[in-house]
Write a structure and sequence with these properties.
seven-stranded mixed beta sheet; single chain; about 120 residues; four-stranded antiparallel beta sheet
Length: about 120
């Protein structure tokens, strides 16, 4: 059974930092491209960042310079380091794992940026 379990979300003040983790099980993690998406009420889920199995990353313009994606294949875990957080970063953040036609989602973790 495939599981993607996100953690690390919460309430943070503007300018603060959070690190999200996505622990995967039931997949051959090192084969998968990993991604972080976010969604706010009434809006479509949008890509924040993704990283290939080879370690190449892609960051959305809206978070470039503030967010970093990484992976640890030995721990079957992907990370999203979020710095200089803004209120507009408030969303539910979802982890995604993709390999060819296989695609899996985590349950999401809430990030709220507010003073």
């Amino acid at each position: 059974q495939v599981q993607l379990v996100e953690s690390g979300g919460g309430l943070v003040q503007p300018g603060g930092s959070l690190r999200l983790s996505c622990a995967a099980s039931g997949i051959t993690f090192n084969l998968y491209q990993m991604g972080w998406y976010r969604q706010t009420p009434g809006n479509e889920r949008e890509l924040v960042a993704d990283i290939t199995s080879g370690g190449s990353s892609n960051i959305a313009d809206s978070v470039k310079g503030r967010f970093t994606i990484s992976r640890d294949d030995a721990k079957n875990t992907a990370y999203l380091q979020m710095n200089s957080l803004k209120p507009e970063d408030t969303a539910v953040y979802y982890c995604n794992a993709g390999f060819r036609r296989l695609n899996y989602w985590g349950q999401g973790t809430q990030v709220t940026v507010s003073s």
